[in-house]
Amino acid sequence: MLIARTLNGLQARTLTDERARELGQMGYMQWLGALPGNADYEHEAVRAYLRAMDFIDTDPAIAVFCGLIRDSLRQPIRPLDLALPKARRRGGARQRRLSI
To answer: Can you tell which superkingdom this protein's organism belongs to (predicted)?
Structure first.
């Protein structure tokens, strides 16, 4: 259920590559943070990737999300490039209404 909610949020219309990267990273952090403490990460990551992979070509933020999952499963383990978006005005409620 959580992966469906995360993917739904990532399917927003992204206007720039930078915004898609920000949303993809936030989606990954949201998904990761919501995993139960005793979850098998590899199993959950593969499951999330399989649910999301159909949208890689059509939704840039989901492509970023899937890229982070792929990178997290590679050996040897390396830190992921994750960052919170820089604080700035993005248009507020009016811009969100226009994006729908």
So the answer is: Bacteria
